Amino acid sequence: MHPLSTTMRLIDGFKAGHSTASNGLMDMFGPILLKWAHGRVPHHARNHLETRDLVQDTLALAFKNHDQLKADNPGAFFCYLRQIFLNQVKQELRKNKLFQVALTTQFTHDERMAYEEDLHAMMAYDAAIDQLSEAEKHVVIMRLEFGMSHQEIAELTDRKSPDAARVYFKRAVNKLAKIMAKDHED
Amino acid sequence: MNDIKITTKEQLIHAIDQGTHMDVDMGAIAASSSKHEVLALLAIAKITTSIKQKQADFLQHAIRPGDRWAHLEIIEKIGAGGFGSVYKAFDRILQAEVAVKFLNSHSRLHISEDEFLQEARLMATVRNPHVLAIHGAATDQGVSGYWSDYLNGEVLYDRILSTGLNQDEQIGIINQLTQAVKATHECAVVHGDIKSLNVMLQPNRGAILLDFGSSRHGAQDLKPGEATQASPMAMAPEQFEGAGNSQPADVFALGLLFAEILLGQHPLIDVDEGQVKRHMTDLASGAIDLGVPKAWQSLIATMLSPQAEQRPTIQQVSAQVTRIQQAPLKQAKRMTLVLSFALLIGITVLSLYNNWRIRQAQQQTQTINDIIAQSFLSITPYEDGRSVKLVDGLKLANELILTDPVLSEETKKDLAIQLLTTHQALSDDVHVLSLAEQVLGMPGLSEQQLMQVHLLLGRYHAQQQQFELTSEHLNRVLSIPAEEPEAHDLHLSALAMLIQDHISTERFAEIGPLMDQLNELKEHSTGDPEVLAQMAYVEGQYHSRKFARQQSHEAYYRAATYYQQQHHENHHSVLTSLSAGSTQLTLSDDVESRNQGIEELMALIPRMNHVLGPNHIGTIKTKSNLGLGLIMAGRAKEALEVLQSNEAAVHEKVGEFSIANLRGQKIYVAWALQDSGQTDAAEEAFRTILELVSTHHPSDHHSRLRAAIDLLHFYRETERFNPAGPLVNESLSHAQQWFGEDSRLYLEIKAIGIWLGYLQAHPEALAQMRMLHTQFVELFGVEDHQTLSVADDIRKMELGEK
């Protein structure tokens, strides 16, 4: 992981419209996003979606309008890319007729149920994540989905120590579970 | 993986944080927390585990050292830049190290795969000794890449900074780079990023221009909104204003590079990055004094003209460079003429002769490269099923070679054999046979060429397990007298294969004389490490069959050393030889050696995992062998763990019903089950193997009988007489029919039958076993392991032991 200062400088450079900064961000975030994205494409849809293409589209969209980027720290930038990617997946799955046909004709009842169940759980999780504060959301996503260490998270979120990041993360997960439980009860 | 018993919500969150598997005590946890919250946490855990699992799957597919991509073996990553990552690899077709550049996934934003491959096509059109030569391009496993010469020289930028260049070197490099850019522009290609970081100084070859990552055809222009990929320190003034790459911009960058070479540093080295544009314009307008030697001043000044159209073409630059160079040379020539006219004539004649030879060789190499590159490029990018495409390429290359109007008949024969070798190594396609026939039909084949073709056919039939045909071709090779050392090498290879063939089919009696012959021939070998490695490997197999574990271990390790000399320490042949050697120790009777072997394999597995990857056949086999070693060491439970963890990879790599799986991994699992006391599961496993071998490999009689023998040994050891009797009779009948009554398999089954009779108090058992022993002694000798085993059975019978 690049030091916080580099990431921030690149984000600032990108927002100011410097093309070298967008290249730097792509170099930095592209591989991380690709690895993460492979974890987020629904299992049963993997044969129907080309993850690399979706990542490419995500990056293209993310770097299209530099002046619309609200992110002011690396965690926010991860969330920004993540959100674009997830929207791409949803859109693709809706558009992808082959997948729709496969879902109804080629998948067995159990496979269809497993897909629905996974999708439902993921939607509940994503909905609950959106209800966390921005800072909590960043930490949870960086740890659980991007697999970053507490040391890296501490650096990227400007926390004092890995331990501080860990405590913050655990509290955020606890909150996430409470939201999911409440959503479920509702 | 250690499961943690989780009784509190905090422990559950901690387990999610650590990504550890969890065993939740719902009763305990529900007493202190809300059930819905616990369920939500479990859902979070499930989701994140699934994400990590899928990510791990993906990473497994990322390119790593030891992987195979197209026909290349990836050795190590050597750099990243432009749009791709560059790896050192071994090209099995060219039998040489190459550099392969892959398109980074995130670079697809800038260029499509086709554009990336276009870069390779462009580079392939430029043929000049000072331009990086492209050997091919492909898309394999979803990854696009192209491969070129592997250069391990020094980057010009580093050289200028470290020791600097003397005057001769400066002029030499300027001349070579001019030729490189001239060749590039003459093919209507623009380089787009000429700078000292993109020039490699290679011993014996001089300067080589690399990285056409920004290149494009001169006729094309940048797309609207697209920016040049050139580095700011090599950009012409117009490029700062948004102009794209062009031939005049290349000339500008070359002018800057000339100045850097002559000055020993970039003319704008001290300039702040933000000020480059302004200084570059000043430089171009002549406002900055370059301070280069006078002879070069005006040429460089014109190359750096602010107006693109005022810059000279590369042809004009080239002519000027030649004029500047020739000034001192002319003087030297005059001096030489005066001092020693006769000597000069001698040198000139010699040099002309050498030049003629070099040109001949270069022309031929050029033609060969062109043909191969053309055939490969014309079918790229490969799609899935690349071996089929690769075969197409080889066929095409063969056709091109045979119909080429320039190549001599002799070269055509050499090339056709070379392609046949490649074809045979890469594919078991039946086309190998027709290609071989075509080559054999070429008039005037030398004896050595005939040997080569028959050796290849032997190898092909060995792969198909057509052992009679294998022997026929290998004996043809051996029947041709070898006079040259290279022909001796071919004899050695044929002998080594023949011995392997005999080992595979358990024809041990004939191996001894063949080994003697092999040892005799060794003295005449050229010392080619590949051949020496092959011989050492066969020796390892031979000693293994004689249960001489230590000797076998040494031979395999020797093979590893030779393979290392030929390739590198992490080449799969090195690692698999080491694995085979260590496996021998694990099978040793001596406890210390056995433990040493197990330790060696345990140390080797992480290395193989890292270098070759967990799904490489060598890694899989080594894990299986470790399982076997642990069984031999009485550590059946550990063995079972190792073997079961390897099962999925084995199925994926070698196929669930392949002989390699059924006669390797699956048998080991059955043994481990038996030794760990799970006898019913073991019986089921042995029976399944026999059934699968019979169903899926009905013509592989050897494997079928071996599977039956394994089951019979199990019956013998667990004293299960009822199912054993019919199986003995059936197997004896098959062995007699397929291999004859003198075969080892027949006699081995007979020995088991007699022992089962002894266990059931058959009065004739001892006499029968003694007769069998006599037969074994006659056929295989007293020292043979099975003769010894039968002798041991007799001893036990005499003492009334089981």
Q: What is the secondary structure topology, with strand pairs?
A:
The complex is a heterodimer of chains A (186) and B (802).
Chain A: H1 4-15, H2 19-40, H3 51-62, H4 74-95, H5 97-106, H6 109-130, H7 134-145, H8 150-156, H9 162-185
Helix pairs in contact in A: 1-2, 2-3, 2-4, 3-4, 4-7, 6-9, 7-9, 8-9
Chain B: E1 4-6, H1 9-18, E2 22-24, H2 26-32, H3 35-61, E3 68-69, E4 72-81, E5 84-91, E6 96-103, H4 113-125, E7 134-140, E8 143-149, E9 154-155, H5 156-162, H6 167-186, E10 189-190, E11 199-202, E12 206-209, E13 216-217, H7 237-240, H8 247-263, H9 276-285, H10 294-303, H11 314-339, H12 341-379, H13 386-403, H14 409-426, H15 431-440, H16 447-463, H17 467-479, H18 485-504, H19 511-522, H20 529-545, H21 549-566, H22 572-586, H23 591-611, H24 617-632, H25 636-654, H26 659-675, H27 679-696, H28 701-718, H29 721-739, H30 744-759, H31 765-780, H32 785-799
Parallel strand pairs in B: 1-2
Antiparallel strand pairs in B: 3-4, 4-5, 5-6, 6-8, 7-8, 9-11, 10-13, 11-12
Helix pairs in contact in B: 1-3, 6-8, 6-11, 8-10, 10-11, 12-13, 13-14, 14-15, 14-16, 15-16, 16-17, 16-18, 17-18, 18-19, 18-20, 19-20, 20-21, 21-22, 22-23, 22-24, 23-24, 24-25, 24-26, 25-26, 26-27, 26-28, 27-28, 28-29, 28-30, 29-30, 30-31, 30-32, 31-32
Task: Kindly describe this structure.
The complex is a heterodimer of chains A (186) and B (802). By secondary structure, chain A is mainly alpha-helical. Chain A contains 9 helices and no strands. Chain A has helices spanning 4-15, 19-40, 51-62, 74-95, 97-106, 109-130, 134-145, 150-156, 162-185. The longest helix of chain A has 24 residues, at 162-185. The radius of gyration of chain A is 18 Å and the shape is globular. The model of chain A has no long low-confidence stretch (mean pLDDT 78). Chain B is of the alpha+beta class. Chain B is built from 32 helices and 13 strands. The longest helix of chain B is centred in the middle third of the chain and has 39 residues, at 341-379. Chain B is 65% helix and 8% strand. In chain B, a hairpin with a 2-residue loop joins β7 (134-140) and β8. In chain B, the strands form 4 sheets. In chain B, strands 3-4-5-6-8-7 form a 6-stranded antiparallel beta sheet. In chain B, strands 9-11-12 form a 3-stranded antiparallel beta sheet. The interface between A and B is large, with 45 and 35 residues.
